[in-house]
Amino acid sequence: MIPQMSEPVALVVGIFLMVLGVSFIYKAYQAGIQGRLMYWEGFLPFTLISPFLLHLPAGKRSLVKPAEGLWVHAVMAPIFGVIGILLLAAGADFTGLPGVATLNVAMNGFKWGRADSVIFNRRTGYQFPIIPRAGKELAKIFGGKIHEDEDKKYSQDNGSYDQAKSNVQ
């Protein structure tokens, strides 16, 4: 729970969050397009969280190293992108702009008046009512049965590989 802030402090916090959001969007670009991620090579717990903390270029004699690979494209780019978008939206709300409202409209296919997907409150933080709604839909998709054509259904009675091989020769 965040204590109540005065308007000038909220403006500074909002601008800081938006700058941090732009930095995470740039990190998502680097991870998604270039496939590069910078991390600090040192004490293991710091190494694990360092991609989220490093936002400035490394010096010449630094322990900051690049990591490259498909996992950077597949895992870290979406994580950085979501964090960047949420920071931009929260920062916009702190500065008095409609950040989360715009995010909700974008997530609803640019249709006004639909249920909120993300709720942000200065005192309590984020809430995601889209998760329970999406969970029900995903359960329908993954819990449903696949309808098969009975004529093409595989059966053990069709023989083995050796029988098929002898029939071809």
Structure description:
- This protein has one domain (7-143).
- The protein has six helices and four strands.
- It has helices at residues 7-34, 44-53, 70-95, 99-107, 130-143, 161-168; strands at residues 36-40, 64-68, 119-121, 125-127.
- The strands form two sheets. It has a two-stranded antiparallel sheet with strand order 1-2. A two-stranded antiparallel sheet has the order 3-4.
- A hairpin with a 3-residue loop joins strand 3 and strand 4.
- Helix 1 (7-34) packs antiparallel against helix 3 (70-95) and helix 3 (70-95) crosses helix 4 (99-107).
- It is flat, with a radius of gyration of 25 Å.
Give a short overview.
The protein has 169 residues and is mostly helical. The chain is built from 6 helices and 4 strands, in the order H-E-H-E-H-H-E-E-H-H. It has a two-stranded antiparallel sheet. A two-stranded antiparallel ribbon has the order 3-4.
State which percent range the strand residues make up: 5-15%
Sequence of strands across the biggest β-sheet: 1-2
| Helix/strand order, N-terminal first | HEHEHHEEHH
Mean pLDDT comes to 83
Describe the largest sheet: 2 strands, antiparallel
How many individual β-strands?
Answer: 4
Uncertain stretches of 5 or more adjacent residues: none
How many helix segments?
6
Core attributes:
169 residues; two-stranded antiparallel sheet; mainly alpha; 4 strands; 6 helices
